[in-house]
Amino acid sequence: MTSSSINEMVLVRPAHTGDLDLLVSFSLAMAQETEGRQLDEARLLRGTQALFDEPTRGFYLVAEIKGQSESTIVGQLMVTFEWSDWRNATFWWIQSVYVRPDWRRRSIYRAMHEHVLREAKQRKDVCGVRLYVEKENRGAQQAYHRVGLSPSTYQVFEEDFVLTKRTRTSKR
User: Fold this and answer.
1) Which of 41, 97, 101, 157 has the highest Cβ tally under 10 A?
2) 159 in a domain, yes or no?
3) What total number of domains does the chain contain?
4) Which of 121-129's residues contact partners 24+ apart within 8 Å by CB, and which partners?
5) Is residue 67 part of a domain?
6) For a pLDDT cut of 90, what percent of the chain falls above it?
7) Contact yes or no for 98/30 (Cβ under 8 A)
8) How far is CA 148 from CA 6, 113, 155, in A?
9) How far is the C-alpha of 48 from the C-alpha of 26, rounded, in Å?
10) Is residue 155 part of a domain?
11) In this structure, is residue 162 part of a structural domain?
12) Helix (H, G, I), strand (E, B) or coil at 81
């Protein structure tokens, strides 16, 4: 699909509190699908609402199919902010990416990604976009390559105080 046909079909817009339940359901599905995690729905709801309550934390975008009788939201992503002292500007981190399975491979993510890039490049205080992806999520990695992203030289390390570490079964 070309960029112009994507734009004719998909409206990428800022999410609003009326989208809250759908954002939560998409995030629950994404966590289960990509990491095998069953998230605490009440905590996730509060965390999603917190972004709307405090916009300095970031924002959500949704992908909506145009021309439908009812709103048909088929994808989401969240952008959060990281200050870079080296660049004296902010990176926009793309997170919580989800596209409904029946709408995958139809350039929905590409439409959302291009929207983020357009918005970010118009601002003098944004120096780039970043995202992280599960090591085994090859499909997502291919999609990110197709939109022009490349692996960073950095690896992410963490100590998570909320979610327990998953144990992977080792192959013998």
Assistant:
1) 97
2) no
3) 1
4) 124/89, 125/89, 125/90, 126/89, 126/90, 126/91, 126/92, 127/84, 127/87, 127/89, 127/90, 127/91, 128/87, 128/91, 128/92, 129/91, 129/92, 129/93, 129/94
5) yes
6) 66
7) yes
8) 17, 10, 19
9) 11
10) no
11) no
12) strand
Reported pTM:
0.85
* Residue 34 main-chain phi, psi, to 5 deg: -90, -30
Length of the chain: 172
What amino acid is encoded at 111 in this protein? A
Give the type of residue at 149: L
The amino acid sitting at 100 is R
Structural domain that includes position 108: 3-146
Identify the CATH number of the domain in which residue 140 sits: 3.40.630.30
- pLDDT for 4 equals 59
How confident is the model over 59-80, as pLDDT tens digits? 999 999 988 777 799 999 999 9
Model confidence pLDDT, tens digit, residues 129-162: 999 888 888 888 888 888 888 888 888 888 889 8
